[in-house]
Amino acid sequence: MITFKTTLGDIKIELDFDNAPVTAKNFQQYAEDGFYNGTIFHRVIKGFMAQGGGFASGMDEKVSREAIKNEANNGLSNARGTLAMARTQDPHSASAQFFINLVDNDFLNFKSEDMHGWGYCVFAKVVEGMDVVDKMTLIDTGRMGFHDDVPKEEILIKETLVE
């Protein structure tokens, strides 16, 4: 169990080591290392998702470890309240950034092992604090540098607790 203590409240997360062992271990290691402390939710799109884990306050990009293998073919769905790894166009490029699905985003699910079908690996779910995640969508967003949908009021992960 991992708890993010944010400026909007606490979010408690349960990792799924059975279905996404590499991804869950990767996320847990970042949490244990304190990597997420002081990071922000830097992209929030109402009716879609809230993304964090890659930028410190002021949109200062953090350096992450090497990318991990995409385990999206694990049978889990990008349903409301699940966490999935963010990545680039490369299906196997996820490292520290993650997002919380605000709605069922079935179009992000695994379809096939090719560039267009890999999808986004679900590896955890919010077990407490989905109301906190929903509060994120109430904050106005805008453009900051090269980034869209950035909350105008920072949503900071102040502390990460690993149980």
From TrEMBL:
It is found in: Cytoplasm. This is Peptidyl-prolyl cis-trans isomerase. CDD domains: cyclophilin_EcCYP_like. One of its GO terms (cellular component) is cytoplasm. Keywords: Cytoplasm, Isomerase, Rotamase. One of its GO terms (molecular function) is peptidyl-prolyl cis-trans isomerase activity. InterPro entries: Cyclophilin-like_dom_sf, Cyclophilin-type_PPIase, Cyclophilin-type_PPIase_CS, Cyclophilin-type_PPIase_dom, E_coli_cyclophilin_A-like. It is an enzyme of class 5 (isomerase).
